[in-house]
Amino acid sequence: MPIQLEIVSPERRAFTDEVDMVVVPGIDGQLGILPHHTPLISALGIGELKIRKGGTEQVLLISGGFVEVRPDRVVVMADIAEHSDEIDEARAVEARKRAEQELQQAESGVDVARIRAALQTALMRERIATRRRSRG
Question: Same domain for 129 and 68?
């Protein structure tokens, strides 16, 4: 029996469908969710959200937000939600390099935290795009 998954960001509804399993990037690690999961609410980190349905897998970049889990439904409310085929590898590499340079010049703790989050997001975009390219 599948579980209903909805992924939304401030810009759009990124995904809505019934799935067999979803793996979300929690702030303390990956969280695998199957139908009839115990209800919970958790903060999300930066990473890959994996959707498994009928032997196929889709990957989205998720950055920040929350996940609400009910036995028959999962709602992901993410700050950023991008499908792997929407990620431009060249732009991800540029963003990573820019964040690395900014990190070296950062002066305050707030700047460092913001830049580290941007760097982590850029690295994850680059990783997802590279993996997509290598799989063809």
Answer: no
Q: How many CA atoms lie within 13 A of 33 on its CB side?
A: 32
Domain that holds residue 50: 3-85
74 and 12 part of one domain: yes
Q: How far apart are CA 42 and CA 19, in angstroms?
A: 20
Query: Are 72 and 117 within one domain?
Result: no
3-state secondary structure string, 114-132?
HHHHHHHHHHHHHHHHHHH
Same domain as 72, residue 109? no
Strand, helix or coil at 1? coil
Average the pLDDT over 108-113 and give the result.
77
Strand intervals (E) in the chain: 3-8, 13-19, 21-26, 29-33, 40-43, 46-53, 56-70, 73-83
What does the pLDDT look like over 5-31, one tens digit per residue? 999 999 999 999 999 999 999 999 999
Taking the C-alpha atoms of residue 49 and residue 41, their distance in angstroms, rounded to an integer, is 16
